[in-house]
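Table 4 source record.
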Amino acid sequence: MLLSKTESAFFSIISMKVIDPNIATSIIKTLPRSFDATVDTSVTLTEEGTNVIQTVVPSAAYVSGNYTVFECEFLNIREDYIYFMEIKQSSGTKFFNIRTGEWSDAGSLSVTTIYRDKIYATASNPEDYSINTGEYIINSDSDANEYITYDD
């Protein structure tokens, strides 16, 4: 087994979105599996540990560069809690009823999960926040190309 020891943070592979619970509108940048701006989108947060669920419809959803951006107004987000986030899009077949003059659902509703992630709610500056603070210390005196080998 060969392990590489580098100057970068070891736990940087752990990824989650960080939002400020004190800000009314949270901006979430994603790389979803797919995105269609013409269909309904919902964002569901499930609080880890309590399984309290809240679902919101983004006030805006748009593509910016390579990212899809969702602007959401979450209620009752608690600081220092982790949430599971799921973004879904639903579309259904609609038909026009000539007798009533209204559009109606044909009954076939399709719901697709386009993105999943975790969210951590904190009021600290997200750029300064690290889940690994104090857990991993980089030794600046070592060589960046140093390898550690273990024999099984």
